[in-house]
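Most newcomers find our protein records easier to grasp once they have seen one. A record pairs a protein's sequence with a compact description of its fold. An example says more than a description, so a record of this kind follows:
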Amino acid sequence: MATLEKLENGKVKITIEVPAAKFEEAVEKAYHTNGKKFNVPGFRKGHAPRKMIENAYGPLAFFDDAFDIVYPEVYQAAIKEHDIEVIDRPDISIVDLPLDGKDLVFTAEVAVRPEVKLGQYKGIEIEKREYNVTDDDVAAEIEREREKVARMVDVERPVENGDTVNLDYEGSVSGIKFEGGSAQGQTLEIGSHTFIDGFEEQMIGMNAGEERDIQVKFPEKYHSEALAGADATFHVKVNGIQKKELPELDDEFAKDVSEYDTLDELKAAKREELEKKARRDAETEKENAVVAKAVDNAEVVIPDIMVERQIDAILNDIRYRLSMQGISLEDYMKYTGTDMESFRKESRIDAARRVKSQLVIDAVAKAEDIKATEEEINAKVDEYCAQFGDKAEEFKKGLSEDDKKFFADQIMVDKTLAVMTDTAVEVEKAEKKPAKKASARKTKKAEEKTEEKDAE
């Protein structure tokens, strides 16, 4: 028998009663399993009767072991009875001990998946988003292709913005060199803002072989506290100057960088790619806008544990992406002048929003009775496995039930978003009307009143 009481912050308290007879069975099992651990004078170790052990060690000698036996069954039964989904480990408190034939009574306080009170999620009005691919967009894509095949050529002239310079430098603050402030044969693109503000600009006009002292100031917020806000001098020597040489925009260029024979064909292909991407972006933004409004329309109390876990997920994602660049999360926080406590605090709003969004999507799926069919799951699995080529079948055989559930969840989310976005109403962006200008008569009256007030 179990009763349930709702608490604050998404928690519940379950009061569970275990009949004395049921707990007695668990105590007997505990005795047969662990009785051999007890030493009782007059008996060989492990051969003392249960009564003698309880006389020597107390009536609750086997309580902990018996509780561990009975707890999983009665706790899971209580969860099922009240149809709740627990999301954390419970805090257990004993209310009544099973002494003198009494029932065992204990409570379990635990966070549960919260109930969502949905607001409007169909027919939501959103601003219409249009993505037009322009000639400038296509030109920018072509220019990126040119950049990929550009070559660097040596030049015999002073440094200009956009040049790539090979240099040696040695930094000092108040005449004292500092760690990490020197390098030989460093490559630097002028105008890339890779170095401290003012450094690259002062190199413009230098010739190969020339040396110069450059004066800079470190930012007030800098990863090295010793250098933050400090004035520094860098002695710089230019070893060489190169400029980027781009290929001519012609049919030969198109053949070199693509499968197309002409520049016009390449431009047409790039336009098609951009248009496809624009449509995908439009759909994504439409989904985001609809979900955002549906989330705003819904009511739910989010347990702290769900927010904390989402913050953990955000941190793990950042840690992974930084590791791909050879940077640790700890070093990144030093560079940005933050710490773990501050980051977690600043991430709470975003984390809570993400949790609420997922809860709302799940609630809509439940309200609409959306499920993934076996055919849909198999099709999704086939689509994913196709990337493994000849090993697709082998990979498919190795999929676990959890893997299949992952694909099923993806399908359910996609179908739920489709229900929400397909019914959305797109409206044209309202144009801001210019503020009305005061009439000459009203302006004159206002000026007269001001003059009268000043005269007083």
